[in-house]
Amino acid sequence: MEELASQLVDESKEFARLSSDLFVVADFDYRFRWVNPATETALGYSTDELLDQSFLEFVHPDDRERTRGITDGMASSGDGVTDFENRYRCKDGTWRWLWWSAAPDIGERLIYAVAKDVTDRKANESALEQARTDLAQAEERFRTAFDNAPNGMVMVSVEPGREGKLLRVNEALCQLFGYSANDLIRKGIRAVTHPDDLEDDLKLLNQLLTGEIPSYEAEKRYRRADGETIWMMVRGSIVRDEGGKPLYGIGQLQDVSERREFEKQLAHQAVHDPLTGLPNRTLALDRLGQAIARSKRSHSTVAVLFIDLDHFKVVNDSLGHQVGDELLVAVASRLKGVLRSSDTVARLGGDEYLMICDDLQSEQDALRMTERVETALAKPIELEGEEQGVTASIGVAIAGDDTQTPDALIRDADAAMYRAKELGRARFEVFDQEMRGRAIERLQTERALRRALKDDEFRLHFQPIVSIETGAIVEVEALLRWERPGVGLVPPNDFIPVAVETGQIVPIGNWVVREVCKVASAWRRAYGENAPLPIYVNLAPRELTSSLPDMVSQILLDSDVAAGDLGLELTESGVMGEYEPAAGILTKLNGLGVKMRLDDFGTGYSSLSHLRGLPIDGFKIDRSFVSTLDRGTGDTAIVSTVAAMGKALGLTVVAEGVETSEQAEAVHMLGCDMAQGYHYAEPITADALSELLDLAAERRRTGSGEVEPATP
Predict the structure, then answer these.
(1) Domain for residue 306, yes or no?
(2) What whole-number distance in Å separates Cα of residue 207 and Cα of residue 213?
(3) Cα diameter, the chain
(4) How many C-beta neighbours within 10 Å does residue 226 have?
(5) pTM check: above 0.70
(6) Residue 124 half-sphere exposure, CB side, CA atoms within 13 Å?
(7) For the chain, how many structural domains are there in total?
(8) Rounded Cα–Cα distance for residues 421 and 116 (Å)
(9) What CA–CA distance (Å, rounded) separates 314 from 465?
(10) Which of 152, 252, 656, 700 is 20 to 30 Å from 477 by CA-CA measure?
C-alpha cells in the first residue's frame, strides 16, 4: 500500500466534502459516481437517489442536448477544464441554475466537476437587464438588486480620463476584498488587480468602450486587503443610453479560488506519482518528447536511464509495505539530488524510475550520469532504525536516428535494464543492436504466444519416473512443448519465461492441467492399478494464486478423475519466496487429495521447519547434484543426506536428471526411491508412452517380466 498516495486522495475527498460548492464525479455514460453533501443540500436528493443515475435526467429539457454534447466533447478530446451552465431539477420540483467547471480523466473515463448555485445570480441578471431597459423607472429596483446581490457588484466610470474609476460597490464585493466601500472606491480597481492581469484588464475595458465586444467573461487575480491573492470570475459589460452612448460599466465578480485550487490539485495528481511527488509516466513521456525535439534543434542528444531497484520485494516482504514506501521515497530524493536543471526523474510504478538526461554531447555524458546515480544510491538508507543497502539495475538508451520517439527510447532502456539484471544486478548496461534483436525476438514470441493457445499449438510430452528397485514406470511428468508454425518445437526455456512474465502462463497452465486429466483418465481406464499415476504438472510461482484450488477442483470434476491421479510440482525457491500464502494454497490442494512435490530441491534454501509445514508428498533432488555423482565429488554426501532426511520425514525422494548408468547406480545406493532422466527414458508423446505401458501389461500377463523403459 502506498500510504502517502491514499493520504492525498483522502485529503482531496475531504476538501470536496466540506466545500459549500457542489462537487460531483461522473462517468462518460452520464452517470453520477460520487457527490458531496453540498450537492444533496442544493438539489434536495440523497446520495442514494443520485448515484448511478443519469445526470441528464435531472437537467432541464432545454439544456439537455447541449449538456450531452459538452460531455461527449470532453470524453473524445480529453481537453482541460470546460465551463458551462445549465438548469437542474430539485426534488421539490423547482429548477436551480448551476455554473459548472468540469475536467475529464480519459484514463479513468471519469469527469470531475465543481459547480456553484447561480440561481440568485441569474435572477439578479434578469433584474439588472430590466433595469437597463428602463433605468429611470427601475432605479430603485436596480439599486436594491445591486446592493443585495450575493456576488460582488461594481459600477465603473467610462468618462474620458476617468475610465475604470469605481463609482459604486456592493457589500458582497467589500467582503471579498476585505475593504470598506469607501476605502475600496478610493483605492480603485486597478490597485487591487494583480499586476500580471492588469494589462488584460485594461484591454478588455477598452474593447467594451469601443464597442468591439458587448461584454466579456474572464477569470482574473486580485489582491485582498490582507495580501492574499484570490481568483475571481469577472463578467463585465457597458450600460448605454437609448442613443448608444456609454453611461457606465458594470461588473459582477464571483470568488472561484476554491475551484481553481481544486483544479490545480486534479491537474497535479493527473501527472505526478502520489507517493513520491515525482512526475509519472504521462508527464515523463511528454517531457521526453520535448527533450528529443530540442535535441534535434541544438544537435545534442538525449539519454534515458531506466532504474529498477534490486531485491525490492525482499524489503516489502520482510519489513512491510510501509517501510517499502519509505524506501521508494528516499530513493526518489536521492535521484532528485543528482539532477541537473534540465533533467527529469519520474517514477513509472513499483520500484521503477526513469531519468531523462537532456542536452548531452556524447555517450560519455550519459555514462557519467549513470555513475552519479550509482554513487547516490551507494550510501545505505536508514529504515526502521537500521541501515538498508540499496542497489539498482540500470538500462541506458541514447537517442539516435532510429529511436526518435519517447516510447521507443524507454523500451530500449527497459531492455538494457533487463540485460543488467540477467548479468547479475547492481550494474548498468547500454542498449545496443544485439539487445534490440533480442527485444524484437521476445516481442514476436510474446505476440505468437497469445495466439498459440487459441490456435491449438501446444503439445504435451511425458517423461516416465521409474522405481529404482524394479525399474518399472510408476509415475509420469508432463512437459509442455510449443509447436510454433514455421519454427517447429520451441524449447521450453525459449518461451516459458516470456509466458510467466506476461501472465500467459496462467491460461496455459489451466490448459495443461485439463489435458493431463484427460490422459490420466484414459490410462486409469486402460491399466487400472498399474497405471503410472499420478501425472505431475509443473507450476510456475505466478500460477500459485488463491483461485488455483477452485480451478483444479472444477477440472477434476469435469474430467471425472480421482484427485490422487494428478500431481503438482513447484520449485523449492518459488514456494519459499512466498511461503505463507503458498502454504495456504497447498493446504487447500492437499484437502482435495492432489499429490504435491517440491522440484529442484536443494537450491531454494528451505529450512526444515518450513519443509515440515508444507503438505507435500515428496521432493526431487536437483539435477545439479545428481549430474556429478559419477565424478566422485562431494555431492554424494549431499544426496545421501537429503535422501535420508526425506525418508525421516516420510517423503518420497526422486532423483532427477539421471543420464548415466553410474549415476543410476549411485542414486540407488544413496537411498533414493525413484529416478527420472534420459538414462531411463526421454520425454515422449502420450501415444508412445501408452505403447510402452501396453507392452509392460502384456509381459505381466504372460509372466515374461517387466519391460525396460525406453532409452534415447
Answers:
(1) yes
(2) 6
(3) 126
(4) 7
(5) no
(6) 19
(7) 4
(8) 55
(9) 36
(10) 700
130 and 175 housed in the same domain: yes
| Pair (669, 632) in one structural domain | yes
Q: What is the CATH number of the domain that holds 180?
A: 3.30.450.20
Measured distance CA(412)–CA(435) in Å, rounded: 8
**538 and 654 inside one domain:** yes
Burial of 598 (0-12, 13-18, 19+ CB in 10 A): buried
Q: Using an 8 Å Cβ cutoff, are 216 and 208 in contact? A: yes
Q: Residue 611 domain-assigned?
A: yes
Residues whose CB is less than 8 angstroms from the CB of residue 109 and which lie 6 or more positions away in sequence, other chains included: 27, 28, 75
Question: What is the total residue count of the chain?
Answer: 712
Distance of CA 588 to the CA centre of its chain: 30
Nearest to 197 by CA among 174, 230, 226: 230
Terminal Cα distance for the chain, rounded: 52
Burial of 503 (0-12, 13-18, 19+ CB in 10 A): exposed
Tell me which of 202, 233, 261 is where a domain ends.
261
- Within 10 angstroms of residue 313's Cβ, the number of other Cβ atoms is 14
The burial class, CB within 10 Å (0-12 / 13-18 / 19+), for 665 is middle
Do 317 and 309 meet the contact criterion of CB atoms below 8 Å apart? Answer: no
Q: Which amino acid does the sequence have at 439?
A: A
Q: Cβ distance 556 to 592 under 8 Å?
A: yes
Q: Which of 236, 261, 286 lies at the terminal end of a domain, its last residue?
A: 261
554 Cβ contact list (under 8 Å, min separation 6): none
Q: Is residue 708 part of a domain?
A: no
Q: Is residue 106 part of a domain?
A: yes
Residues 6+ apart with CB under 8 A from 572: 598, 599, 600, 601, 602, 603, 604, 606, 619
Cell 519454427 sits at which residue? Answer: 487
Domain that holds residue 189: 121-261
CB-based burial, 681-694: b 16+ in 10 Å, e otherwise? bebbebeebbebbe
Asked if 459 contacts 441 with a C-beta cutoff of 8 angstroms, the reply is: no
Rounded to an integer, what is the distance from CA 139 to the centroid of its chain?
A: 62
- 208: number of CA atoms within 13 Å, CB side? 27
Residue 64 shares a structural domain with residue 185: no
Looking at the DSSP assignment, which residues form a beta bridge with residue 700? none
Tell whether 518 and 653 lie within a shared domain.
yes
Please state, in angstroms and rounded to a whole number, the distance separating the CA atoms of residues 678 and 683. 8
C-beta atoms surrounding 68 within 10 Å: 15
- Degrees, nearest 5: CA angle 248-250-252: 170
For the CA atoms of 670, 675, 676, 678, what is the dihedral angle to 10 degrees?
Answer: 60
Taking the chain (712 residues) in consecutive chunks of 10 residues, what is each chunk's mean pLDDT?
Answer: 44 75 92 93 92 93 93 82 91 93 88 90 76 60 81 84 81 89 85 85 80 85 89 87 82 87 80 90 91 86 92 77 89 92 90 92 88 90 82 90 78 89 87 76 84 92 93 93 90 86 89 94 91 92 87 92 91 69 86 88 59 81 82 73 84 91 88 91 92 84 58 40
Beta-bridge partners for 59: 88
Asked if residue 61 lies in contact with residue 88, where contact means CB atoms within 8 angstroms, the answer is: no
The CATH number given to whatever domain includes residue 493 is 3.20.20.450
Same domain, 73 and 142: no
